[in-house]
Every structure is written in C-alpha cells, then in structure tokens.
Amino acid sequence: MTARHPALAFLFAAFALIVFVPAKSHAGATEQPAPAFTVDGKVALASLVALGDGHLLKLADSLRTLAATPEAQSADWPKIRQALAQVGEQNVAALNWFALPDGTYWSVQEGRAAGNLSTRAYFPKVLAGQAVIGDLVVSKATGKSVAIVAVPVTRPDKAVVGVLGASVYLDQLGARLEREMELDDTMIFFSFDARPLVGLDWDPSLIFVDPTKLGQQDLSRAFRDMLAREEGVARYVFRGKLRTVLFRRSPVTGWWYAFGLVPEGRGTRQR
Known about the structure:
The chain is of the alpha+beta class. The protein has seven helices and 13 strands. The strands form three sheets. The protein has a six-stranded antiparallel β-sheet. Strands 10-9-13-12-11 form a five-stranded antiparallel β-sheet, sandwiched between helices. A two-stranded antiparallel sheet has the order 1-2. A hairpin with a 5-residue loop joins β9 (187-192) and β10.
C-alpha cells in the first residue's frame, strides 16, 4: 500500500498513536514497558463511520419495531405517542414524529404540526415502502438542520397507513461523536452528501454549508475530488491551515465521512 499510495501512508503515520502497555512485574524483576502498538487513521475513520451510521441504524431499527405494533398500525396518534416517546428516550436527540399518508403529522415534543410533509423529497419513498436514513433537510417544525430517519407503517394487508420518523439534530449528533471518540485539538471530522452539503461537523457553525460555494478554490477542488471517489485522502488549505483527511463514502447514508488532522491545532471551532 505504501508504494501505491504514498499520501495515505504519510497520513497513517501522522495519525499513529503510540501506546505503551506496562508489563506486569514479578518478584525481584524490574518492570519494563510492553512492545508498542499503533492505531492509525484508517481505524479512526472506521470508528467515525461506525458510530455515525450506528446511531442512525439503531434509531431506524427502533422505529421498525414500533411500526410492527398494533398501536402504530392503528394510525391513531394518541395510541402511538407514548411508544414513540420511549423510542426517542433510547436514541440520539431528535424530533420524533408520526405522519399520515397525506403528510399531516404530529411530534412527541410539539403535538400536531402546522406544516405538512407531503412535499418532502423523502416522503414518497417511505410511502412506497422504503426506509430513509440520512436525508438532510431543515426541519419544518424547528427550523434546525436535521438528518431524517423514517420508516413506513404497513398493515398486514400491505397497506401503508403512515410514516414513523425522527429528525435527528445534526449539531447534537456531532457533539456526541466528538465525545465518544475523545478527539483532541489536532483532530477534525465532518460528513457531507452528494450536493455537497455538510451534515456532521466538529464545528457546528459549518453544518448545512456548501463547501464549494465559500469562494476558496483549494477547498472546492478538494471536495470535488472527494465526491468523485468512494474513499481516499485529501489535502487542502482552509482558513489558513492545512487539513489532511481520510474519507470514505457510507453505503448506509450515502454520506462521505472524513477524519483528519490539523497538526498545529484547530484552535477556534473552525474546520
């Protein structure tokens, strides 16, 4: 791999974390450190993808389980609300909702909504029987940037009688990933979709930004390059600092996830 991908080899070396594990001491023996091992950038990126996708998949599974119950299949909001509230308590922070096929919907947090979901691009897909995981939208109810997780509610006669969904708050999910990965000041992460639109970011001020429209040629070039590939390494200058990131596209959400370094430290909350 090193010969074919020298940039990747450089990045893995830069990401390497040297860990010494103390050896157990024996009577009369001097304690010596055990051999060192390394954890490289591939592992860090894989952890980011697994954590990000894992939270959304767990939520989708919870909604599917609820969709199979008589309460959900009744399409009666008062019967659904309590069980959906429990789904919300057991998963990542989100607006948790149920919608009828005409787009009318209710949420656990706010009750009946004034808006309608029928015009959302993801909504016909769910009514056709597909689960949606990771569509990026601005919530009609809250105005926040969210990732949609939604599943159809189908009765035994195969009729779709509604949609169970969650609008996952991207800023809170990003903060949770940073805590779970215990990142230090030299490490950054973000994700983006095919538009490209930033979804997750360690700096929440950049969520829902199109990086190609920030007027910075090097940044635009890097994102176009990442969009053209399923995985690899990208290096670019943004706000005066060199960023080196590993990236990989997720088959679950369709997002590109990136994990990288700012060697001199990220400083302020800017990618």
